[in-house]
UniProtKB/TrEMBL annotation:
Name used for this protein in its record: Undecaprenol kinase/diacylglycerol kinase (ATP)
Cofactor: how and how many bound: Mn(2+), Zn(2+), Cd(2+) and Co(2+) support activity to lesser extents.
Residue sites binding substrate per the record: R7, E65
Binding-site residues for ATP, renumbered to this chain: R7, Y14, E72, K90, D91
PROSITE patterns given in the database record: DAGK_PROKAR
Binding site for a divalent metal cation: E72
Length: 121
């Protein structure tokens, strides 16, 4: 049991190290992460319903951005010269982030914009 707990703690440490690394090295991840934090706080403050929906959808964007960042870094490590397949891998991962972020943006706008406009009146 003790060995099992040690393995879990090591895995958690590696995950935290990965999050810190992504925050340090990837501007787009930092932007998405702080957008997620902002939208999570806004939804907690403004919404009576659908807080979990907003939180979950924007959390999904963070997950996709982490995968995108890891793919980009793996491709950069695997090759130093320009290759079309490396470009495809990076562009496709970026497209996944674009679609996830676009979907989150639409949902955020549908639920948060009316509440923000009420505050401005």
């Amino acid at each position: 049991m003790k060995r099992f707990l040690i393995r879990i703690l090591k895995a958690l440490r590696y995950a935290v190290e990965g999050l810190v690394a992504a925050l340090k090295i990837d501007l787009h991840f930092r932007i998405n992460f702080f957008l997620w934090l902002s939208l999570a706080l806004l939804s907690l403050l403004l919404l009576q319903k659908n807080k979990l929906l907003i939180f979950t959808i924007n959390y999904f964007v963070i997950i996709v951005e982490l995968i995108n960042t890891s793919i980009e870094k793996a491709v950069d490590t695997a090759t130093v010269e320009w290759k079309l397949t490396a470009k495809y891998a990076k562009d496709i991962a970026c497209a996944a982030t674009l679609f996830a972020g676009g979907f989150a943006g639409v949902v955020d706008t549908i639920y948060l914009l009316p509440e923000l406009l009420k505050l401005l009146k």
